[in-house]
Amino acid sequence: MIEKDRYIPIRIQKNHALLKRIAKNHSKRLMVESDQTRRLAGYKGEQAIDFHLSKLPEKEHMILHDLRLSNGKHFFQIDTLILNPAFALILEVKNYGGTLYFDPDFNQLIQTNSKGEVKGFPNPIEQARVQSSEMKKWLLKRNINIPIEFFIVISKPSTILKTAPGNAKMLQKVLHVQFLLKSIEKIKASHKKEVLSPKDMKKISRFLLKEHTPKQFDILKHYEISISDIQTGLSAKLALSIQ
């Protein structure tokens, strides 16, 4: 059962509005377009898992997308959280193509695309471990103690995954989207003790929905664009600039 649906992120919406309202030759336009392309790809990747998640038994699972929660001093974000009577599962979705090399020596992800261009990214496995730790703390503060698992889901089936010899264990948490349901079944097999009742799961879902805090974002300030550069009426200028 979907408790929190997935919506087009506000950052994408604001980028879209901004691109419609700044000049074609504006000095920051390419920067906005580049950011928009990257974010749209990420959102498309997140959507790619929805078809597979729709096949999960609704009575056993609660699904919440795009959570942003506070642990007091800072916020943490989760692409998708699945609640089950026996465990919670965090899904971090990546829409990367080409070849992905998980470098154990420098703890980073290296992507080589079809053009041979190489890019480095933070290790998503470590990112998901941090998210799991933060989620664990968040739940324990509310006297909820359940096992928490995570997967890095690669949304493009053609993406090639590699790592160093002898380091294959690193990729146990990384999977292509078409294997998501099978991997969830394996987790179920390893967590057979149910610790949450349907009432408990609903209670946790209410906590999460209540404490979800969307990020406030002033897009004009971020790109250092003057409101006088916006080619539209006052109401639209305010919509772009408000927190």
Account of the 3D structure:
Helices cover 37% and strands 24% of the residues. The protein is of the alpha/beta class and 243 residues long. Strands 1-2-3-4-8-10 form a 6-stranded mixed beta sheet. The longest helix is centred in the first third of the chain and has 20 residues, at 29-48. The mean pLDDT is 91.
How many helices in DSSP terms? 8
Tell the overall outline: globular
Number of domains: 1
Mean pLDDT: 91
Q: How would a textbook summarize the main sheet?
A: 6 strands, mixed
Q: Could you state the order of secondary-structure elements as H and E? A: EHHHEEEEEEHEEEHHHH
Radius of gyration, taken over Cα atoms and rounded to an integer in Å: 20 Å
Can you list the strand order of the major beta sheet?
1-2-3-4-8-10
Query: What structural category do the secondary elements indicate?
Result: alpha/beta
Estimate the helix proportion, in percent. 25-40%
